[in-house]
Amino acid sequence: MLARATLSRGITALRLSKNMTLYVNELASPASGSQTLASEEPKPLMLMLPWLGSRPQAVAKYCEIYFRTGFDVLVVESEVKHFLWPRWGLDHGKNLIELLQSERFVSRQLIVHAFSIGGYTFTQLLVHVSRDMQKYQSLTKRIKGQVFDSLVMGTVEMMASGLGKTVFPRLESLVKKVSMLYFGMFKQQTVDYYNTSIDVFWNTPIPAPSLFLFCENDLLSDAQTTIELIDFWRKRGINITTKKWADSTHAGHLKRHPQEYVTTLELFFYSLNVAPLKAKM
After folding, report:
1. Which of 19-28, 77-86, 194-203, 227-236 has the highest mean pLDDT?
2. In whole angstroms, what is the distance from residue 118 CA to residue 98 CA?
3. CA–CA dist 55, 198 (Å, integer)
4. DSSP per-residue letters across 221-255
5. CA 6, CA 47: separation in Å to the nearest integer?
């Protein structure tokens, strides 16, 4: 949850559960710059899925982009256990999809912004959708756009490396070795499940326009695999926008390339015609 000092004026934080916080944008800023009450039309909802170990101050910088544009933001955090024992991750995805189908959100247009392993959390939602397309048809239609920032792409070994780098950076090598041993011991409950989830993501049941943000020097997100996924989705008819940097930082593109990052988001969101977008980012 974002610290009070990081919240903008007019933003109210509602803790919905241990891992889910809704930031309500009480005031929208029109293009003129004067502040008025937001219209009665439901504001679009940004579903933000941060990286493991993300700090509130870092997440706040991304939330600010959407607050200025008139969004409410639902931040859904993941825990290590959701990744290490996929059944718990699937339960986490179930809780999220039920929340998005609840009365509070059922009429809201949705845009997803998933960072790093946050893409894994989103995939757990996709698994439930793929199992009952008819039940979740209205949800898939409400998702108007998807942003994937530094997705963890590649092998299980890369996933293990990512776990060490993001959660226990000082013990990265040890964590990687222990994780690989763990995955080997519980292959059916972990690796086999990851492979199934990856297949669901590649054959996503949500064909909304998507923006991929990635770089060539990211050890946790294989650029070639990302490009192959992009090509595969384009062949399926999904509208794809990409921004690739030669040199950047995993889940840190906004910090390294602030102007390019925000401009890319701005162009992408305005291409979606999601209303009401109250101001330039």
Report:
1. 227-236
2. 18
3. 27
4. B-HHHHHHHHHHHHHTT--EEEEEESS--TT-HHH
5. 19
